[in-house]
Amino acid sequence: MTPSSHNFTRLPTDDEGDTLRPEAAASLASTTSNDDILDGLLAKVGYGTFQRRLLIMCGFGWLADNMWLQTVIIILPRVQDHFDVSDKWVGSVSSALFTGMMFGAFFWGTYSDTRGRKVPFTSTLAITTVFGFLSSLAFSFWSLCLMLFFLGFGVGGNMPTDGALYLEFLPKQYHYLLTFMSVFFSLGAVLASVLGYTILPYASCPEPTVAEPHPACDVSVQNNGWRIMLASAAFTTLLMVLVRSFWLRLPETPKYLLSRDRRKETVVVLQNIARINGQDVQIDSTDIPRSSPNSYSNNGNDEEEVLLNMDRDHDGVRSRRVSSEMDIDYDNDDQRAPMLGSSNIDSGPASEQQSLAGTLAPSVASETIYGDTIEENSKWKLLFGPRWRRTTILVWLIWTFTSVAFTMFNVFLPKYLETLGFQGEAAPTRKDVYWDYMIYSLAGVPGSILASFMIETRLGRKGTMALSSFGSSLGLFLFSIIKSRVTMLLSSSSVSFLVTLLYAVIYGYTPEVFDTNVRGTAVGTASGLSRIAGIISPIVCGILFTLAAVLPLYVSLIGFAIVGICVILLPYETRGRAKD
Q1: pTM here?
Q2: Which residues form the domain of 573?
């Protein structure tokens, strides 16, 4: 048949230049993706000033996430004093924050897949700042919970979006930096513990003594340290927002743009990154193959498929085909490979055109030949399809049980430390408690740094996660049988180091293992599930704490052991993108 300017999607050719049959094209689709194309172009652009600045800006999101978590944990005993809340219900403050984080993770993770990464990047910390200041002005226990819920909705979007965003600007050989970025997560805990150490001992109700076990306290005057701490965290977040807004004008990620077949914008973004990095790189649209449509519809009705709205762009003539299910752009370029269905649509038999579409539909219904673009309602189907099902379930279990185990140990640690007393040792003061908690937080920083090196050794991502999760379980066991303050501090610091190492790899592995088209949804859901665990854990931990102080530790011990088992069962090792 005679070629026409009204062309359908291009079908790849074999080594001899012959057009492949639809079945062969579908097979090729599974091995050729936008990720492969962008990896090559990002390697061409290189690593430089742009990525270094972006590392800090994305790191702010992770820092804010943990800073707010630890801030709320540290102020719990002081909030309990202020509003006279029982041990059973004081955990509701943390649960409110985690609930907001859950909704934020689901919402912003899905939003970033469907609308892009840029808006969440600029919005999450702004929302956090506003409600951070408002929470410091809370007039009741439940108004504080409400403000922290909305704060959590903002800060909860940082983990699923910032990691994916940074990864999609990185050349492949620098993917280990996503794990290194978790050092900001550790610094968030350190910053919160420093604020607690410098503020709370001097702006809280008087400590109980043997002579006066229940000292009088005017909470409106003497117990405002927790308000000052919340306001200080909000001011710190505001500084992060200002840096994000003015230090670097962030574009949409090239991988997201290409997954939407927005080639012109992809080229512009890559050229700008190269310019900021000081690279003299020439990239144009011919370096990026055109993606095929998301899906085909063969309902047997010619009337539902028409050609209209012809317009011209720099590549040549583009025609738009509208069907009952989609609105797709097509391209004509005489310098490129033959196009699928390149027969003249005016003279070719309708049944033949529909036959070709119908033949191709089952094999590439929700994939592109050269790209990763899929229908939005297919993302969940893909995550639970044959390729991703096992990985999806195990990754989500890892996030959930890590959150349970970490929260059980961490949420009530300051209060637990205040109840400790060892034979021959004086009971710790609040200043001692906050000092110990600061050491505990500092111990996690080396874990983040070490993780970025360990994942590139023979251990890989999986081995590092397994070692740290089982090690955390052992550390918790030692903590549960402590006999002195020194051994308590050593064992808790080892747990902090290993858990931070574990989180560092989890945060890097999760966006790395999933493809661009489902990355935001997969990571957002994983983060959301961890927040659900965080909602339940403080309340359960409070109940367990009233029964026996060590019960939360045993739950944590078992939780980390389950995480280690799930890690071993993971099918993919992402070091070098190798698969087991």
Answers
A1: 0.68
A2: 45-204+217-250+382-577
